[in-house]
Every structure is written in structure tokens, then in C-alpha cells.
Amino acid sequence: MNSYKRWNNIVGWIVFAIAAMTYLLTMEPSSSLWDCSEFTATSYKLEVGHPPGAPLFMLLARLATILAPSTYYVPHMVNAMNCLASAFCILFLFWTITHLARRILTRQGAELTKANIVAVLGTGAVGALAYTFTDTFWFSAVEGEVYALSSMFTALVVWLMLKWEEQADQPHSMRWIVLIAYLMGLSIGVHILNLLTIPALVFIYYFRKTQRITFKGIAVSTLISGAILVFINSIIIPHTVYIGALFDLFFVNSLGLPVNSGLVFFVVALLGALGIGVYFTHKKGRTVLNLVLLSTLMILIGYSSYASVTIRAAANPPMNSNNPSNPFALYSLLNRDQYGDKPLLYGPQFSAPTSGYKYKDVRYLDDDGKYKTVSIISGYEHPDEFMHLFPRMWNYAASKESYKSWSAYRTRTDYERDENGEIVRDAQGRPNKIEVLDFGRRTLWDDGSGYEPLVIVEPTFRENLNYFFSYQLNHMYWRYFLWNFVGRQSDIQPTDAIITDGNWLSGIKWIDELYLGPQDNLPDEIANNKGRNTYYFLPFLLGLIGLIYQLNRDPRNFSIVMWLFVMMGIALVVYFNTSPNEPRERDYVYAGSFYAFCIWIGLGVLAVRDLIVWATRRKGLMAPIAATVVCMVVPGILAAQNWDDHDRSHRTIAR
After folding, report:
1. Which of 200, 82, 92, 48 is nearest to 150 (CA)?
2. Is the pLDDT reported for residue 414 higher than 80?
């Protein structure tokens, strides 16, 4: 066992070094496009960026910029910080995969022989290096965005929970859960995507603490994980600030004290109350309640990085988005009020008529130093008959045609007619038939004004679902998934559902031609596009093999990886409720889902190892070594294909 731990650390740090060197060599030597330039500028001077802010990222990036020899190298240092954070993500992924691989072998009753140690280390190396060179993660790893640091937190908390699983029977094992709670709080100051690991963490706890899996236990664990997620995302993040703002309203308007004094009082009182609760529950031996209170306290301490937002806003820096210098403005920033709301499970479709405005009271700090209340329009009211379940086509700012191209499913046959309405016929006198695409259902609606009834064209529920599956799920998720594990046609963003740009591409001619048409004699801008990467399904197939292998041999841990895969992929698709014609590709938000799939890519090495043992009837060192070498083709082809379009070391286009 000591030999395994030593080699697990050595190989893990070698994989870290490979990832770090790759990212540092290919990072952009300047600020990148989109939000990266803003993050770099706001970090350098500790300014206030766009909602909901990323204060911990800003603080860490500020520390990195202090090391810059001159202002010219400030973007280099921010990008380099992300390169190292991404490499640490790869390190924690490696240790996660080796832990899960070891669990498979030990559950089968096998000892950690030299052959098994090599097999386990091979799974970690293949899976971690595969993720190192995937399209989406590599792109985010080398620029000054929050997603690299967020990915590191994701990989870290999953690995720490597995550390707890190893030591769960020891007296002080709960320290790992307390540490995870603190890191969860810190991660809020980077990006809230880390919270989506909570269901997987709860199920690790459930499986470790029970011997017999029951439907009731699974249901209760699911409800608990949902409750924890709601508690952090919908209560701790917004409402601690809101309650503090109400205290500040009383302190400022009624007692005449300075702005933020009420917030400070509330924060001190809350932390003090939690601290006292932790002390007395510990003294009375209330273990579970003590853990809950202590974890909540640690989340709030980590979340306190947002204090820097108010502190810096009060200093009025050059960029001061929303000026959150008081708790009510900070609450608005955290709630992303300026972006508006979108329906999730119930609401109107894009063509629904309005019946009035929604209003809400907003408090602001007046010039006299007192809080005033003003009522503002926050959205539209819609008649009840136009409210529907699961509204996917909700954005009234999007055109009917942009929705129609993704959602219409019915066609009818009609005849082509000339300007006089006569049927057009061919040379043989046969009428020219055409297919007409229908969209929506027509609804006559009287708005009560006494005028003629209005004709409202609403999408049918089936069209609504068709849009969800064809655009939101397929085009905006599975297409990205296949980019990473099958191949990518080009880095040209399509403006619609077209076959020339931005699709997945395997490199297997007859398969590609089924979806994308002939692949011969392509224009130079397509054929020689650096983003044209083909993996021949190899990463996908190895991941599928690893998925089936883990499902058959370790269904408990399989469900944990599946929770990560679904929560950071398909669940986000439902939550984002994306409108058509996004200004840029959104694959970066699904990097956590691809991280989970790379766990299965690593575990595929064990399946290949078993196949070699079965074919050769030999169980020595040669089988795991051969399996690792064969499966290294996957990270190898990813690195070879992706290097040219991910090498941004000479790219300064944004500057």
C-alpha cells in the first residue's frame, strides 16, 4: 500500500507537470476576447466587474499581477495563473480516477499487486491526460476567465470527498467535509458551477454510510442534495445579503448610522451565533447538528470574499459595475437583476400577448445618505391562458423564424401558385407540389379592449419540446460533447443549422457524409481550418467502454460519476433555457460534464487490460502496461489534433 501511495503521488505530479507545461506554452500572451479583457483589467486595479462578480478570482489574479515585471506582462500573469489552476484540476482528476479504479479492483477482491498498481496508475494517466487535451477545457485553461479556477474547485471538492470516504471510520474524518464546505464558499467567489457537485458528494456519503441500498435511501439522498443546493444557492448567497440590507435600512434611516453599519452588525451577529451554536453542539455531543452549523459557518466565511466587492465599490474605481457600495446594490448584483428573468418550468412562450407590467420596489441610496424606495418595471404580465409548462421558446426578443427553423416538425403538401393564384404546372401539365412547413397554433384572443379579436400564433407543446431536443439539447450540448470526444468540423461559428460550419466530425468518411454531405474537394477555408480536428470516435468509444465497465463492476461509484455528468451537462441545459442565435459558442459551461466523461475514459483502461488478460491468459505486468500504451492513443490523438488551434502563444488579436 505504501508503494502504491508513493507511485500515485509521483505519477500524479508528472501528469500535473505535463498539463502545466502544455498550458504555459500555449497560453495567450495578452488579454483574450470577450470577458477575459475585463477580468484582467478589473483584477489589476481591483475594480468591480459585471454581475454577479467574481471577487475571489479578482483577488487571486491581483496577487498574480503583482508578480508582473511591468504593466505589459499583467495579462501574462493572469493567464499563467489560470494555466496552473487548470493543471491542478488535472492533478485532482488523476487522483480521483485512481481512487475509483482502485475501488473497482478491491471490490472484486483483488489485492494491490504490482500489476494492479500499474493498471490503476494507467487509468489515471490516460483519463487525466485525455481531459488535458480536450477542446473545451484546453481553450478555457489558457485565458483569463473564471472557468479554469472553477474547474479546479470542482475537481478538488470531488477528490476531497473521496478522501473522506477512505477515512470515514476514523475519529476526525468529518474535517474533510468541513473543508469541502469552506471550499464551496470560496468557489462562490469564482463561479457557482461548483455547487452542482453537491448531489455526487451526498451520494458518496450515503453509499459509505449504508450497507444496503434502498429506493427510499436513494430518494431521501436526492431530496437532501436538492435541499443543500437550494439552501446555498437560494438562501445563503442572496438572502444573507438581503437580510443584512434590511438591518442596514434600519441602522441608516432610523438610527442615522453610516451606510453598511447594519450589514456589518448582521454579519458579526450571524457569525457569532453560528460560532456559539457550534460550541454548544460540540459540548453536548450533537454531532450531526454540529457538522451542519460548522459547515454553514465555513461556507459563509468562504463567501465573505464578496465583502471586497462592496469595499472596492465604495472607493469608486474606474470600472464599477452597478456600484454595489451598499447592501441593496450588492443584492441586486448577486441576483443578476439587470439580465432579467427567464421562465424555467412555467411561463409564457415568446409570442404570448402582454396584459400589463410587473413592478417591484427597489431601494437605493439617495444623495442625502438615506435609503429611498422606487417602484420599477421588472417584466411583463401575461394572460393565464398563455402560461404553459416547460416553456423553452420564451424570448420575445428572438424572431419567430429563428425559433421556427429549430422547432417546426409538421409539413403539409400544397401546390405552387403564380401571382394570379393559378396552380403552376410543369411541361407535362402536372401541378407543381411543394411542402409547406407549419409552425404553431392560431389562437383567437380578445384583449378586452372592444376591438376585433387578435390572432396569436403560439408554438405547440410538441414544437416546444422539439426545440428543446433539437436546439438546446442537441445543438447546444451534444454537439459540444462530440466536439471533445469525436471531432470538430471547424472553429467557424454557424449562424443557423447548416452543414458547413461548427458541427462534429469524426474523420470516418462514410459516417461524416451521412450528416454533412460529401467531404471531397472542400474549400480551403474548411479543409485546412485549424479547428478541423478528427479523433475517429476513439475518445468516445474508450469512454463508453469505461462507462459500461464501471456500471457492471461498481454501480455505486458509477452513479456518482453519472451525477456529475448529468448535473454539469443536461441539468444545465434545462436551467439555462437558451435562446437561438447565441453571440458565441457556450461549450465552456459544460466542461464539468466532459470532466466526468474523462473519468470513464480512464476506467476504460481497466476494461482493455481485462480483455488482454482474457486473450493472452496472462496476468502479469505486460497486460496493464500494454493496455496503458494502447489507450494512450486517446490523449495522443487529442494532443496532436488540437495543438495547432489551441496554441495561442502568438495570438494578440484582442489587443
Report:
1. 82
2. no
Instruction: Report the 10 Å Cβ neighbour count for 437.
Output: 11
CA distance linking residue 365 with residue 407, whole number of Å:
46
CB 333 within 8 A of CB 238: no
Helix (H) or strand (E) holding 621: none
pLDDT reading at 424 higher than 90: no
User: Is the Cβ–Cβ distance between 533 and 641 less than 8 Å?
Assistant: yes
Show Cβ contacts of residue 104 under 8 Å, excluding neighbours closer than 6 positions.
549, 550, 553, 554, 557, 603, 606
For 241-275, how does the pLDDT look when each residue is reduced to its tens digit (9 = 90+)?
A: 999 999 999 999 999 999 999 999 999 999 999 99
436: three-class secondary structure by DSSP: strand
Render pLDDT for 346-368 as a digit per residue (tens, 0 to 9).
999 988 888 888 888 889 888 88
Residues 104 and 603: beta-carbon distance below 8 Å:
yes
Determine the Cα–Cα distance for residues 165 and 177; give it in Å rounded to an integer: 10
DSSP assignments along 394-426, one per residue? --TTS-HHHHHHHH---EEEEE-B-TTSPBPB-
Which amino acid, residue 482? Answer: L
Average pLDDT over residues 435-461: 72
Measured between alpha carbons, how far is residue 138 from residues 26, 84, 262, 473 in Å? 9, 12, 45, 23
Enumerate helices (H) and strands (E) in the chain, giving the number of each.
26, 10
Q: Are 313 and 47 in contact (CB under 8 A)?
A: no
Q: Any idea which residue has 487548470 for its cell?
A: 86
Cβ–Cβ < 8 Å for 292, 335: no
Supply the DSSP symbol for 449.
Answer: S
pTM as predicted? 0.92
